[in-house]
Amino acid sequence: MSAAFALTAVAGFVVSLIVSWLALRAAVLDHPNARSAHERPTPRAAGLGILAGLGAGLLAAATTPLGSGELAGLLAVTGLFAALGLADDLFDLSEGLKFIVFAALCLAITLAAGPVTRLPLTLEIGLDLPLWLGVIGSALFIFTVVNAVNFMDGSDGMLAAVMAPAGVGLAVAGLVAGVTSASLIGAALAAALAGFWVFNRPPARAFAGDVGALAAGAAYAGAALAMAGNGFSGSLWLAPLFVLVFLADVLLTLLRRARHGRLRLSAHSEHAYQRLIRQGWSHGRLAQIYGGLTALIVITGLSAAQGPDGLVAVGFAVWVVILTALYWLAGRIAPGGN
Q1: Which of 40, 182, 213, 313 has the most Cβ atoms closer than 10 angstroms to its Cβ?
Q2: What's the Cα-to-Cα distance from 47 to each of 20, 64, 147, 217, 291, rounded to whole Å?
Q3: DSSP conformation class of 158
Q4: Does residue 338 belong to any structural domain of this protein?
Q5: How many domains does the chain have?
Protein backbone atom coordinates (compact mmCIF):
# COMPACT_ATOMS: atom_id res chain seq x y z
CA MET A 1 0.00 0.00 0.00
CA SER A 2 2.77 2.46 0.89
CA ALA A 3 4.46 1.77 -2.45
CA ALA A 4 1.26 2.64 -4.32
CA PHE A 5 0.93 5.97 -2.54
CA ALA A 6 4.62 6.76 -3.01
CA LEU A 7 4.34 6.02 -6.74
CA THR A 8 1.22 8.19 -6.99
CA ALA A 9 2.84 11.11 -5.16
CA VAL A 10 6.14 11.01 -7.08
CA ALA A 11 4.44 10.79 -10.48
CA GLY A 12 1.99 13.55 -9.58
CA PHE A 13 4.68 15.92 -8.34
CA VAL A 14 7.19 15.39 -11.16
CA VAL A 15 4.68 15.65 -14.00
CA SER A 16 2.98 18.68 -12.43
CA LEU A 17 6.36 20.39 -12.04
CA ILE A 18 7.32 19.76 -15.67
CA VAL A 19 3.97 20.72 -17.22
CA SER A 20 3.65 23.82 -15.01
CA TRP A 21 7.10 24.93 -16.23
CA LEU A 22 6.10 24.34 -19.84
CA ALA A 23 2.89 26.33 -19.32
CA LEU A 24 4.94 29.13 -17.77
CA ARG A 25 7.09 29.19 -20.90
CA ALA A 26 3.99 29.32 -23.12
CA ALA A 27 3.07 32.65 -21.48
CA VAL A 28 -0.72 32.70 -21.78
CA LEU A 29 -1.02 35.93 -19.78
CA ASP A 30 -3.50 37.01 -17.12
CA HIS A 31 -3.77 40.81 -17.41
CA PRO A 32 -4.64 42.71 -14.20
CA ASN A 33 -8.13 44.21 -13.84
CA ALA A 34 -10.08 45.98 -11.12
CA ARG A 35 -10.56 42.74 -9.14
CA SER A 36 -7.01 41.41 -9.50
CA ALA A 37 -4.61 41.03 -6.61
CA HIS A 38 -1.59 41.23 -8.95
CA GLU A 39 -0.16 44.25 -10.72
CA ARG A 40 1.56 42.89 -13.85
CA PRO A 41 0.64 40.40 -16.60
CA THR A 42 1.40 36.87 -15.37
CA PRO A 43 1.20 33.47 -17.13
CA ARG A 44 -2.02 31.77 -16.05
CA ALA A 45 -2.12 28.32 -17.67
CA ALA A 46 0.16 26.61 -15.14
CA GLY A 47 -2.95 24.92 -13.81
CA LEU A 48 -2.46 22.47 -16.66
CA GLY A 49 0.31 21.10 -14.48
CA ILE A 50 -2.21 20.34 -11.74
CA LEU A 51 -4.39 18.40 -14.17
CA ALA A 52 -1.42 16.58 -15.69
CA GLY A 53 -0.06 15.72 -12.25
CA LEU A 54 -3.43 14.35 -11.18
CA GLY A 55 -3.62 12.23 -14.29
CA ALA A 56 -0.07 10.94 -13.99
CA GLY A 57 -0.48 10.13 -10.31
CA LEU A 58 -3.71 8.22 -10.87
CA LEU A 59 -2.36 6.42 -13.92
CA ALA A 60 0.56 5.32 -11.76
CA ALA A 61 -1.90 4.18 -9.09
CA ALA A 62 -3.85 2.20 -11.70
CA THR A 63 -0.79 -0.01 -12.22
CA THR A 64 -1.02 -1.18 -8.60
CA PRO A 65 -3.54 -3.52 -6.95
CA LEU A 66 -5.07 -0.49 -5.19
CA GLY A 67 -6.19 1.09 -8.48
CA SER A 68 -9.94 0.94 -9.08
CA GLY A 69 -12.36 1.56 -11.92
CA GLU A 70 -13.94 4.45 -9.99
CA LEU A 71 -10.75 6.43 -10.50
CA ALA A 72 -11.30 6.55 -14.25
CA GLY A 73 -14.78 8.05 -13.99
CA LEU A 74 -13.79 10.70 -11.47
CA LEU A 75 -10.65 11.63 -13.42
CA ALA A 76 -12.61 11.85 -16.69
CA VAL A 77 -15.13 14.34 -15.27
CA THR A 78 -12.33 16.28 -13.58
CA GLY A 79 -10.74 16.58 -17.00
CA LEU A 80 -13.99 17.97 -18.40
CA PHE A 81 -14.12 20.58 -15.63
CA ALA A 82 -10.53 21.52 -16.51
CA ALA A 83 -11.44 21.74 -20.21
CA LEU A 84 -14.26 24.14 -19.34
CA GLY A 85 -11.80 26.23 -17.33
CA LEU A 86 -9.23 26.26 -20.12
CA ALA A 87 -11.87 27.32 -22.66
CA ASP A 88 -12.89 30.16 -20.36
CA ASP A 89 -9.25 31.18 -19.83
CA LEU A 90 -8.69 31.36 -23.58
CA PHE A 91 -12.03 32.55 -24.96
CA ASP A 92 -13.91 34.19 -22.04
CA LEU A 93 -17.11 32.13 -22.33
CA SER A 94 -20.54 33.60 -21.63
CA GLU A 95 -21.85 33.24 -18.07
CA GLY A 96 -24.98 31.40 -19.25
CA LEU A 97 -23.03 28.78 -21.20
CA LYS A 98 -20.58 28.23 -18.36
CA PHE A 99 -23.42 27.74 -15.87
CA ILE A 100 -25.18 25.14 -18.02
CA VAL A 101 -22.02 23.14 -18.67
CA PHE A 102 -20.92 23.51 -15.05
CA ALA A 103 -24.24 22.23 -13.71
CA ALA A 104 -24.16 19.25 -16.07
CA LEU A 105 -20.63 18.36 -14.95
CA CYS A 106 -21.67 18.59 -11.28
CA LEU A 107 -24.39 16.03 -11.99
CA ALA A 108 -21.94 13.84 -13.91
CA ILE A 109 -19.36 13.75 -11.12
CA THR A 110 -22.14 13.05 -8.61
CA LEU A 111 -23.14 9.98 -10.59
CA ALA A 112 -19.49 8.92 -10.97
CA ALA A 113 -18.81 9.21 -7.22
CA GLY A 114 -22.23 8.06 -6.04
CA PRO A 115 -24.69 10.37 -4.26
CA VAL A 116 -25.01 10.59 -0.48
CA THR A 117 -28.41 9.25 0.59
CA ARG A 118 -27.98 9.38 4.36
CA LEU A 119 -27.09 12.25 6.66
CA PRO A 120 -25.60 10.59 9.76
CA LEU A 121 -24.94 12.08 13.16
CA THR A 122 -23.78 8.72 14.50
CA LEU A 123 -23.83 5.23 13.03
CA GLU A 124 -27.28 4.65 14.54
CA ILE A 125 -28.78 8.14 14.29
CA GLY A 126 -29.24 9.83 10.94
CA LEU A 127 -31.66 10.94 8.25
CA ASP A 128 -32.25 8.74 5.20
CA LEU A 129 -32.85 10.69 1.99
CA PRO A 130 -34.77 9.68 -1.14
CA LEU A 131 -32.47 9.07 -4.09
CA TRP A 132 -33.58 12.18 -5.99
CA LEU A 133 -32.86 14.41 -3.01
CA GLY A 134 -29.50 12.74 -2.44
CA VAL A 135 -28.51 13.38 -6.05
CA ILE A 136 -29.55 17.05 -5.88
CA GLY A 137 -27.82 17.60 -2.54
CA SER A 138 -24.64 15.86 -3.69
CA ALA A 139 -24.53 17.85 -6.93
CA LEU A 140 -25.02 21.04 -4.91
CA PHE A 141 -22.06 20.04 -2.73
CA ILE A 142 -19.92 19.60 -5.86
CA PHE A 143 -21.16 22.93 -7.25
CA THR A 144 -20.36 24.78 -4.03
CA VAL A 145 -16.92 23.29 -3.44
CA VAL A 146 -15.67 23.69 -7.01
CA ASN A 147 -16.89 27.28 -7.18
CA ALA A 148 -15.38 28.07 -3.78
CA VAL A 149 -11.98 26.77 -4.84
CA ASN A 150 -12.18 28.77 -8.07
CA PHE A 151 -13.27 31.98 -6.29
CA MET A 152 -10.48 31.70 -3.71
CA ASP A 153 -7.69 31.18 -6.24
CA GLY A 154 -6.83 34.86 -6.42
CA SER A 155 -3.76 35.23 -4.23
CA ASP A 156 -0.23 33.90 -4.70
CA GLY A 157 0.22 30.47 -3.13
CA MET A 158 -3.34 30.32 -1.78
CA LEU A 159 -4.61 27.40 -3.88
CA ALA A 160 -1.81 25.02 -2.93
CA ALA A 161 -1.61 26.26 0.68
CA VAL A 162 -5.19 25.10 1.32
CA MET A 163 -5.85 22.32 -1.17
CA ALA A 164 -2.59 20.41 -0.63
CA PRO A 165 -3.24 19.76 3.10
CA ALA A 166 -6.89 19.12 2.24
CA GLY A 167 -5.69 16.47 -0.23
CA VAL A 168 -3.49 14.89 2.43
CA GLY A 169 -6.44 14.83 4.83
CA LEU A 170 -8.60 13.23 2.16
CA ALA A 171 -5.94 10.60 1.50
CA VAL A 172 -5.85 9.60 5.17
CA ALA A 173 -9.63 9.82 5.73
CA GLY A 174 -10.25 7.71 2.62
CA LEU A 175 -8.14 4.94 4.13
CA VAL A 176 -10.10 5.14 7.38
CA ALA A 177 -13.38 4.98 5.45
CA GLY A 178 -12.13 2.19 3.23
CA VAL A 179 -12.52 4.22 0.01
CA THR A 180 -9.23 3.74 -1.82
CA SER A 181 -10.19 5.92 -4.77
CA ALA A 182 -10.62 8.92 -2.46
CA SER A 183 -7.24 8.22 -0.85
CA LEU A 184 -5.40 7.96 -4.14
CA ILE A 185 -7.02 11.11 -5.56
CA GLY A 186 -6.17 12.99 -2.36
CA ALA A 187 -2.53 11.89 -2.58
CA ALA A 188 -2.30 12.74 -6.30
CA LEU A 189 -3.94 16.13 -5.74
CA ALA A 190 -1.57 17.09 -2.92
CA ALA A 191 1.46 16.05 -4.97
CA ALA A 192 0.28 17.85 -8.11
CA LEU A 193 -0.36 21.04 -6.14
CA ALA A 194 3.12 20.80 -4.61
CA GLY A 195 4.62 20.74 -8.10
CA PHE A 196 2.50 23.71 -9.16
CA TRP A 197 3.36 25.63 -5.96
CA VAL A 198 7.01 25.85 -7.03
CA PHE A 199 5.90 28.44 -9.62
CA ASN A 200 2.92 29.90 -7.73
CA ARG A 201 4.56 30.60 -4.36
CA PRO A 202 4.73 34.33 -3.53
CA PRO A 203 5.67 36.26 -5.56
CA ALA A 204 3.96 34.05 -8.14
CA ARG A 205 5.61 33.45 -11.51
CA ALA A 206 2.48 31.71 -12.83
CA PHE A 207 -1.19 31.28 -11.96
CA ALA A 208 -3.44 28.24 -12.12
CA GLY A 209 -6.19 29.94 -14.09
CA ASP A 210 -9.66 28.43 -14.22
CA VAL A 211 -8.20 25.26 -15.73
CA GLY A 212 -6.19 24.53 -12.58
CA ALA A 213 -8.68 25.79 -10.01
CA LEU A 214 -11.58 23.82 -11.52
CA ALA A 215 -9.42 20.70 -11.82
CA ALA A 216 -8.32 20.92 -8.17
CA GLY A 217 -11.82 21.68 -6.93
CA ALA A 218 -13.48 18.93 -8.97
CA ALA A 219 -10.89 16.30 -8.02
CA TYR A 220 -11.28 17.08 -4.33
CA ALA A 221 -15.09 17.39 -4.40
CA GLY A 222 -15.62 14.18 -6.37
CA ALA A 223 -13.27 12.13 -4.18
CA ALA A 224 -14.70 13.65 -0.99
CA LEU A 225 -18.22 12.78 -2.15
CA ALA A 226 -17.15 9.20 -2.85
CA MET A 227 -15.80 9.02 0.71
CA ALA A 228 -18.78 10.77 2.31
CA GLY A 229 -21.26 8.10 1.30
CA ASN A 230 -19.20 5.26 2.72
CA GLY A 231 -17.57 4.08 5.88
CA PHE A 232 -17.95 5.69 9.30
CA SER A 233 -20.48 8.41 10.11
CA GLY A 234 -17.84 11.13 10.41
CA SER A 235 -16.77 10.78 6.78
CA LEU A 236 -19.73 12.92 5.69
CA TRP A 237 -18.53 15.81 7.88
CA LEU A 238 -14.87 15.44 6.94
CA ALA A 239 -15.70 15.99 3.25
CA PRO A 240 -16.50 19.72 3.64
CA LEU A 241 -14.40 20.16 6.79
CA PHE A 242 -11.03 19.92 5.04
CA VAL A 243 -11.93 22.82 2.70
CA LEU A 244 -13.94 24.76 5.27
CA VAL A 245 -11.50 27.69 5.18
CA PHE A 246 -12.46 28.31 1.54
CA LEU A 247 -16.15 27.54 2.05
CA ALA A 248 -16.39 29.90 5.03
CA ASP A 249 -14.84 32.84 3.17
CA VAL A 250 -17.06 32.33 0.11
CA LEU A 251 -20.36 31.65 1.88
CA LEU A 252 -19.93 34.33 4.55
CA THR A 253 -19.01 36.84 1.83
CA LEU A 254 -22.19 35.85 0.02
CA LEU A 255 -24.21 36.56 3.19
CA ARG A 256 -22.33 39.84 3.69
CA ARG A 257 -23.15 40.98 0.18
CA ALA A 258 -26.80 39.99 0.61
CA ARG A 259 -27.01 41.98 3.85
CA HIS A 260 -25.73 45.06 2.03
CA GLY A 261 -28.00 44.59 -0.99
CA ARG A 262 -25.23 43.46 -3.33
CA LEU A 263 -26.32 39.86 -3.90
CA ARG A 264 -25.47 39.61 -7.59
CA LEU A 265 -23.72 36.87 -9.54
CA SER A 266 -21.26 39.32 -11.08
CA ALA A 267 -17.59 39.07 -10.11
CA HIS A 268 -16.44 41.09 -7.10
CA SER A 269 -13.47 41.59 -4.78
CA GLU A 270 -15.08 41.34 -1.35
CA HIS A 271 -13.65 38.05 -0.09
CA ALA A 272 -11.82 38.45 3.20
CA TYR A 273 -8.42 37.71 1.65
CA GLN A 274 -8.99 40.34 -1.08
CA ARG A 275 -9.94 43.01 1.45
CA LEU A 276 -6.91 42.14 3.59
CA ILE A 277 -4.60 42.44 0.57
CA ARG A 278 -5.96 45.93 -0.11
CA GLN A 279 -5.31 46.69 3.55
CA GLY A 280 -1.63 45.90 2.99
CA TRP A 281 -1.36 42.23 4.00
CA SER A 282 1.08 40.24 1.88
CA HIS A 283 0.14 37.27 -0.29
CA GLY A 284 2.63 35.10 1.58
CA ARG A 285 1.19 35.98 4.97
CA LEU A 286 -2.34 35.17 3.85
CA ALA A 287 -1.28 31.86 2.28
CA GLN A 288 0.38 30.92 5.57
CA ILE A 289 -2.73 31.82 7.59
CA TYR A 290 -5.21 30.04 5.33
CA GLY A 291 -2.90 27.07 4.88
CA GLY A 292 -2.06 26.87 8.57
CA LEU A 293 -5.73 26.92 9.52
CA THR A 294 -6.42 24.16 7.00
CA ALA A 295 -3.59 22.01 8.34
CA LEU A 296 -4.94 22.48 11.88
CA ILE A 297 -8.46 21.62 10.72
CA VAL A 298 -7.20 18.47 9.00
CA ILE A 299 -5.33 17.36 12.12
CA THR A 300 -8.29 17.97 14.44
CA GLY A 301 -10.72 16.35 12.00
CA LEU A 302 -8.64 13.20 11.64
CA SER A 303 -8.11 13.09 15.41
CA ALA A 304 -11.85 13.41 15.99
CA ALA A 305 -12.43 10.54 13.57
CA GLN A 306 -10.51 8.31 15.97
CA GLY A 307 -12.72 9.35 18.90
CA PRO A 308 -16.30 8.63 19.95
CA ASP A 309 -18.98 8.36 17.30
CA GLY A 310 -20.36 11.81 16.45
CA LEU A 311 -17.24 13.72 17.51
CA VAL A 312 -16.43 14.77 13.93
CA ALA A 313 -19.83 16.46 13.61
CA VAL A 314 -19.12 18.35 16.84
CA GLY A 315 -15.69 19.35 15.54
CA PHE A 316 -17.26 20.59 12.30
CA ALA A 317 -19.66 22.81 14.27
CA VAL A 318 -16.82 24.17 16.41
CA TRP A 319 -14.76 25.10 13.35
CA VAL A 320 -17.75 26.82 11.77
CA VAL A 321 -17.97 29.04 14.84
CA ILE A 322 -14.20 29.71 14.87
CA LEU A 323 -14.01 30.60 11.19
CA THR A 324 -17.10 32.79 11.45
CA ALA A 325 -15.43 34.69 14.28
CA LEU A 326 -12.21 35.04 12.27
CA TYR A 327 -14.18 36.31 9.27
CA TRP A 328 -15.85 38.91 11.51
CA LEU A 329 -12.41 39.93 12.81
CA ALA A 330 -11.12 40.26 9.23
CA GLY A 331 -14.09 42.49 8.52
CA ARG A 332 -13.10 44.76 11.40
CA ILE A 333 -9.53 44.96 10.10
CA ALA A 334 -10.47 45.41 6.44
CA PRO A 335 -14.10 46.56 6.19
CA GLY A 336 -14.11 47.81 2.58
CA GLY A 337 -15.69 46.14 -0.46
CA ASN A 338 -16.67 46.71 -4.05
Answers
A1: 182
A2: 7, 27, 16, 12, 19
A3: H
A4: no
A5: 1
